[in-house]
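Re: beginner question about structure tokens

> Can someone show what the tokenized structure looks like for a real chain? I only ever see the sequence side.

Sure, here's an example I had lying around. Input first:
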Amino acid sequence: MENVVKPICRWGITGEIGAGKSTVAAFITQFGIPVLDLDTIAKQLMQNNEYLRAQIKREFGDHAYIGDELNRGYLAEKAFKKGQVGRLNALVHPAVYEEVARLELAFAEQGQNIIAKESALLLQNGRPKDIDFIIWVQSSRENRRNRLSKRPHLTQTDLEARIKHQSSLHLSQHLDKDRDKVLYNNETIQALHKKVSQLTSQLKIECDTLLQSRV
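And the corresponding structure tokens:
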């Protein structure tokens, strides 16, 4: 008998840089929801996908790689400081979408009916039509700066450039007030864990209702 893949309820986890998206994603994983980190997937593809590597070299030059290793500093300089983020994303995003579709299918075949995606730029081109619920992680600019200052290999100049770039996009304007959730992360890690636990339970119930309507 053919194995029928059931519908999936998709969550998006996003917010400005340093808001705490990865921490929220890690907590959601603890509660049994697989999370696909789109930014990590993109970096892996930029490193290992031969076709994408060739495209990046053609667009940004051979200095985009040092030997077989992605030259992150060089690409960050080109993308964030020289206004070429769009050019880089146009190369990377199609490969990411293809890989995400493959991973989603694998999870669905394992019986998962809820899958989350984490990405800083999930809303860059508006609200994705395939996402059922978005969790917008929000934190004060001061807290975001403090968290980013602890990241290795990120200079103060890079930090400010990334904050300025993301803030200029006004991504939160694309949220659907009737479906999406804003998660405030300005307190302790314990408080955030409790909030994520409560929100996960709530969204699981909302997903059950949504998926029943799709059967």
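Each token stands for a local structural state, so reading them left to right follows the chain. Strands lie at 9-14, 35-37, 65-66, 69-70, 114-118, 133-138, 181-184.
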